[in-house]
Amino acid sequence: MERYLSGLAAAAARALGDDLVGCYLHGSAVLGGFDARHSDVDVLVVAAGATSAAQRASLTAGLAALPCPAVGLELSVVTRAAAAGPTAAPRFELHLTTARDDPKVVDGHARGGDPDLVLHFAVCCRAGRVVGPGPAAAAVFAPVPAALVLAQLVAELGWAVGHATGEYAVLNACRAWRFAVDGALVSKVDGGRWARDRVGAADRALIAAALARQRREAAVRLHPAAVAAFVQRIGAHLTAP
């Protein structure tokens, strides 16, 4: 992992030159729960200002040449101004993923903002790790208002039920619940551990099964109806007046 991150930082430096502010690791690699068997390597690259098409193409090519020691890389390039002024859908320069089942390269200049960046910015501000030279994450990423973080966590609940695994949906709901209670941003695994002791027997068993599947300790089946009902209850709790 360290060799990979060093190579990533070097590729960003070659592509962006003096326009590079820094590369910042976030996600499960800094919050905990990272498992190379099913986790992405999550990185935000911050540029001093708008990037050129040549810079974006150079970065994409440089990163494609690096073998990722996990499921894949999920990386976005944002400007320093975007990182310093979080909105409900921050603008971005480039987004790319290298996971085998979902590789993509998206030019942010042709798109609107990306709501997913709300949580990425929030994690970077609180726990991001600078990779290679550059200022500390807290000096680049402004604190994200709690209302924006909670709104994005709630929005992800419905997406997870329809598009993610059962364990992801359950544990994602648990970490959203944790943030709503005390403002802590934690990994899905830590969210599940926290919630497991605060629910009834049926939900406790569901969360325990989700944790076991997430850690690849067991292949217990999560019934889709039970997953959807749990996520719906958490969502109703989070949006209650």
Automatic annotation (TrEMBL):
What's an example of a GO molecular-function annotation for this chain?
transferase activity
Provide this UniProt record's keywords sorted from A to Z.
Transferase
For the keyword Transferase, the answer is: yes
| Superkingdom field | Bacteria
Domain named Adenylyltransferase AadA C-terminal: residues? 140-233
Q: Name one Pfam family in it.
A: AadA_C
**Coiled-coil segments, which residues?**
none
User: What SUPFAM superfamilies does UniProt report for this protein, alphabetically?
Assistant: Nucleotidyltransferase (SSF81301)
**What is the protein named?**
Adenylyltransferase AadA C-terminal domain-containing protein
